[in-house]
Design a protein that fits this description.
Strand order of the largest sheet: 6-12-11-9-10
Number of strands: 20
Radius of gyration: 36 Å
Shape: rod-shaped
Number of helices: 0
Largest sheet: 5 strands, mixed
Order of helices and strands: EEEEEEEEEEEEEEEEEEEE
Distance between the termini: 128 Å
Strand content: 35-45%
Helix content: under 10%
Structural class: mainly beta
Length: 196
């Protein structure tokens, strides 16, 4: 009685199938013998992670290592992007701060997109503030503090009897802290007068 313009489909989309009567003089659809268009639709399939993306930790300290598992999806490649706030980074951050990682598989003709976000924090390394000391004058050089890989010192030693204000400055204030602050710390070392 009729022909069809399309008999089947695979991709997710709308298919307009045109039905045409072979003999329009002797056959009818009821009210008309004109071609009829039917809309068939194949919906997108749900995509999902078959292996969940994850971080081995969501909180670690500067210079520590963390493992990132990108995961796998039913269909498509998992793309990994890192953000600080809304700013996209060029790769995995290493400096202290608050970040998020987004694992995503783009939408395709046949599959819906899938996304997973994980927030994580890299803490600064806490450096212990050394203790100030007192000495008694004896003509010898008194060693106060030595600079370290973490901080510099304004004065390392003294000889004369007086108060020495020694300023400690962190070399990398973005990734190191004294605990509550990363501002310079001043320690008072004193060499007392000797008894005569």
């Amino acid at each position: 009685e009729y022909t069809v313009s399309i008999t089947n489909g695979t991709d997710a989309k709308v298919y307009e199938v045109v039905l045409s009567l072979k003999d329009k003089d002797n056959y009818t659809w009821g009210e008309t013998s004109e071609d009829q268009t039917l809309r068939f639709e194949i919906f997108q399939a749900e995509n999902e992670f078959t292996t969940e993306p994850k971080l081995s930790s969501t909180k670690w300290t500067y210079k520590e290592m963390v493992t990132v598992t990108n995961g796998k999806s039913l269909f498509g490649e998992v793309v990994v992007k890192y953000y600080q706030g809304e700013v996209e980074l060029t790769g995995m951050p290493t400096n202290a701060g608050d970040y998020k990682v987004v694992f995503s598989v783009a939408e395709t003709t046949n599959y819906k997109p899938v996304t997973k976000e994980i927030n994580f924090t890299i803490d600064r390394i806490v450096v212990a503030v050394p203790k100030a000391k007192t000495f008694t004058y004896d003509g010898q050089v008194k060693q106060f503090l030595e600079a370290t890989n973490e901080y510099t010192v304004s004065i390392t030693n003294g000889t004369d009897a007086k108060v020495y204000d020694v300023v400690l400055s962190l070399r990398d204030k973005d990734n190191y802290t004294w605990g509550e602050t990363s501002e310079d710390q001043t320690l008072r070392f004193e060499i007392f007068q000797a008894e005569n």
